[in-house]
Amino acid sequence: xxxxxxxxGFICTTAHPTGCALQVQEQIDYVKERAAISGPRNVLVIGxxxxxxxxxxxxxxxxxxxxxxxxxxxxxxxxxRTASAGWYNSAAFxxxxxxxxxxxxxxxxxxxxxETKQKAIDLIKQELGQVDLVVYSVASARRTDPKTGETAxxxxxxxxxxxxxxxxxFHSGEVTSISIEPATEQEIQDTVxxxxxxxxxxxxxxxxxxxxxxxxxxxxxxxYIGSEITQAIYREGSIGQAKDHLEATAKKxxxxxxxxxxxxxxxxxxxxVTQSSSAIPVVPLYISALYKVMKEKGLHEGCIEQTYxxxxxxxxxxxxxxxxxEGRIRxxxxxxxxxxxxxVAKIWDAISTENIEQLSDLEGYRREFxxxxxxxTEGVDYEADTDPxxxxxxxx
Length: 396
Hints:
The chain is built from 13 helices and 13 strands. By secondary structure, the chain is of the alpha/beta class. Strands 5-4-3-6-11-12-13 form a seven-stranded parallel beta sheet, with helices on both faces. A two-stranded antiparallel sheet has the order 1-2. A hairpin with a 2-residue loop joins strand 1 (7-8) and strand 2. The two termini are 27 Å apart.
């Protein structure tokens, strides 16, 4: 079939296997061209099919030579529908790892369920024995608690008062004003249940009880703080409450893992184009301005560059891991540089529909959005007849 992008708001409902595979290979090549990492040997990545989770799996495998287990939702092609980008990404990773002689396995299913956790534990016992790094990188708008059966949906809303600011339809380039009503207390609680640290805690509990955490094991999860422009909708909003819970969970897990010499960290990363960030009002416009400034200053990083820096300059640099006053790893340092934020603020004040293409990198934003799904990738013939059915080795 001829596979073209089909969009619905901030979602692309199709994915291109060739484009996804090529992008995975580009990330692998980036890591292989750099210095090898003295790091983890056996790694579990929960939420491994895209974004930071995929990048962590690539850096661990092709930078440190680690064996990996990836957990993600299964979404194969059906009839005339393509598989998800995550499926194609994971298939490409598995094939590359196999060719490199690395042990690599994928567990597909809902990461929130006890069943998926047990599948991963059984696999680790059988194939790796134990893991010394657990990366938790799950992004979901909905979660069912396996203990209570309660299902919650997260919201992206401010707290306390209505929030009004600029936003952009990144497909059309139209800049408009948006007002968002504040979250209710129930919506805040639901957002914390979905995007806070509860499931991360459950994973570590299950892995520890299952005896598959190695002595000195590290676990990390991801957070974001951002600039003043996005504070009200992000860090001070409902999702910020979830991130506060995630960071509190990291401290609790560090105490829990101290018995085996382990540690838990939240990594604060920079703003990047992801499916999740595309859904947050204001954020795509902010990222478009940020990208322009950081690219002009030679500071721009994507997931793979950020993750390689996380491993080489933070987690496995030797000695104590550098942390901020709240005990977090910071790799958003370049984004929050004073000179960067000052220029972004100037752009923000002036930006409009009429000048957005000149003042921002909206075109770069659009391109990266479609690249999430394997489109707009150099070297791919998008007019070619392409088989959407892609098998992946070592998937359970």
